[in-house]
Amino acid sequence: MTIDTLLKQAYGRLDTLSDTAQLDAQLLLAHIMGVSTTYFFTWPDKSVCDAHQVGFETLLARREKGEPIAYILGEQDFWSLSLETSAHTLIPRADTERLVEVALDLLPQGAGSILDLGTGTGAIALALAKEWSASKVMGVDYQAEAVALSQSNAIRNDVSNAEFRQSNWFSEVKDAAPFELIVSNPPYIDPEDEHLTQGDVRFEPLTALIAQEKGMADIRHIVSQSKDYLVKKGWLMFEHGYDQGSAVRSLLEIHGFEEIATYQDLGGNDRVTVG
Ligand code: GLN
After folding, report:
1. Ligand 1 in contact with 117 (CB < 6 A)?
2. Which site among 16, 117, 143, 218 is 20 to 30 Å from 163 CA-CA?
3. Considering the entire predicted model, what is its pTM?
4. ipTM exceeding 0.85, yes/no
5. What is the distance in A from the centroid of ligand 1 to the CA of 79?
6. 268 Cα to the center of ligand 1, angstroms
7. Residues 88/125, Cβ–Cβ less than 8 Å
8. Closest CA relative to residue 165, chosen from 110, 222, 211, 118
9. 92-136 per-position pLDDT tens digit
């Protein structure tokens, strides 16, 4: 079968399940064939060998069952990084690149010391460490699997100014404090949210997604503790739900933060708040 025919059949099978059916099919076939997707535009009529067809079918069947592309491929691009993914951690998202962008805009000179709470794959910590090569970045996660993954992602991306350790939020970071910047993309989805029953998110770890108190419990905990771990003029920055901007702003205000501002994601929704 030719590349073109194989891809067209795959688009048909993924069309109702995925908003990105064409790209999904191309990424899976490229992965099996060990080529980049541009190869398919140059050689649409080339025939695909049996072994590659069988391998492609296996991956396609996984995608048809709803498994996210990033878990099937085992990797996801984020900022300028290529990150290894695992089912123990959230898949890095474009919305979270917005947090990195806001940090870079807010602190044009960079921050000397940074803490990333709930680092997962290490996405935010590694992006900031790469942008600010003179900074010292610490990423922490409650899950040992995430710590191992973020450490291996640091090596994979040649980042040497980020260190990762296991910690339940601030529990193990006292010796490295105070930080000039604390960032976090914590769990913030209301456990009742029906978004959790649809699409790729069904395959991601709930511990990285949901928080009690309508999704605000972890953000509340972090805000209430963070002043003990920040320098006097330090910054605290969160990713949060599209409808949590005002709640996060008032929380920061109650805890004495100043220069509080919320920034929108690519879809125009409130997504990042700083103070
Ligand atoms: N924004 C993600 C989603 O809606 C959730 C990320 C998070 O909980 N930190 O799937």
Report:
1. no
2. 218
3. 0.95
4. yes
5. 17
6. 16
7. no
8. 118
9. 999 999 999 999 999 999 999 999 999 999 999 999 999 999 999
